[in-house]
Write a structure and sequence with these properties.
The protein is of the alpha/beta class and 319 residues long. The chain has helices spanning 2-11, 25-41, 125-135, 142-155, 166-176, 182-189, 194-205, 221-231, 235-239, 277-282, 299-316; strands spanning 14-19, 46-49, 77-81, 99-104, 115-118, 208-211, 214-219, 254-261, 264-271, 286-287, 291-296. The N and C termini lie far apart (43 Å).
């Protein structure tokens, strides 16, 4: 499959790279990394990256998206990264390109592009892109390696998640040979403002336990709006950013952060032990076995999701 992807890249002179909206480190890292790989190995090609802007990961070098007119897609190749469902793609113009290609490491949800390369055994899309580059004997420049390493770090939880394996470390080792200092990434990635440290402390106090090893946090629409207007927070930082406050509690094996917005309740589901992806899929979402997300209509539905998590735990224990 990698050879087919390489042939597509070699065929088109204009390439436009997409990823999911509200990008995390893996989405941006894979987008920048692939752009730099193509520029390094095919300097005569024109490569753009598009999508919404970010606040949390604005420290990543080269992250800013390009503003391009619609006719740029005429005769171009569009590549979609780190995205399992069409509705998540930032900038839907990829459908107007002459050809489409996807690299993704999530559990399969639906066909999106003319050529879909999906392998959920990789800890990150950046890991998948790195393997693609290695297998196709592509040269890395410094920014490509640094960006791909950033995505591997963020999506593997600093190599702590069980999705990280010997292949992860082998690929990370290849990237760190490319003349960048990983400490430049860590110093930005894990530095935090005092206001955010205090915010996490407040969210720790919001944790509720549901029994059967399940915990959750609810942020109502009014609470979210107050945090945005008075504390300078953003929806992504509350939804994705605060789910980790429940990750290291002894006796809690699965947890979910619910954030009520005008568009619905954002759900970030996580687990130490269990495959919670089917529950996310049941509610219209998806992702990974132990890290998934969904958007649901209301808090009542959120409580149903909590009950489903409890039932999963009981079933897994044979109760």
């Amino acid at each position: 499959m990698f050879k087919k992807a390489l042939k597509l890249i070699e065929k088109y002179d204009v390439i436009i790279i997409h990823r999911h909206s509200n990008p995390d480190g893996d989405a941006l890292g894979s987008q920048i990394g692939l752009r730099e790989l193509i520029r390094e190995n095919y300097p005569n090609k024109t490569v753009y990256m598009v999508g919404d802007r970010t606040k949390r990961y604005a420290f990543i070098e080269g992250w800013e998206p390009d503003e391009i007119p619609d006719n740029t897609y005429n005769g171009a190749l569009a590549i979609v990264l780190d995205t399992s469902a069409k509705f998540m793609i930032s900038d839907t113009r990829y459908t107007t390109a002459a050809a489409t290609l996807r690299f993704d490491h999530h559990i399969y949800c639906e066909d999106i592009c003319g050529l879909d390369i999906i392998d959920n055994t990789y800890e990150s899309c950046c890991g998948l892109i790195t393997q693609f580059a290695v297998d196709c004997k592509l040269r890395f420049n410094r920014l490509a390696a640094k960006s791909l390493f950033t995505g591997m770090v963020t999506d593997s939880g600093r190599f702590r998640y069980d999705s990280a394996n010997s292949r992860t470390f082998r690929l990370a080792s290849i990237l760190t040979e490319q003349s960048f200092d990983p400490n430049e990434i860590y110093s930005e990635l894990y530095a935090d403002d005092l206001s955010n440290v205090r915010l996490r402390a407040e969210f720790t106090l919001k944790i509720q336990t549901a029994g059967d090893g399940v915990a959750y946090i609810i942020t109502t629409k009014d609470e979210l709006n107050k945090l945005i207007t008075e504390r300078g927070a953003d929806t992504f930082g509350i939804s994705r950013g605060m789910v980790g406050t429940m990750s290291d509690i002894r006796g809690i094996d699965s947890w979910v952060n619910f954030t009520e917005t005008a568009e619905g309740v954002l759900c970030e589901l996580r687990s130490k032990k269990y495959n919670i992806n089917p529950i996310a899929v049941k509610y219209g979402g998806g992702g990974h076995a132990k890290a998934s997300g969904a958007t649901i209509p209301d808090i009542a539905t959120a409580m149903n999701m909590v009950e489903d998590l409890k039932a999963l735990h009981r079933q897994s224990k044979g109760e």
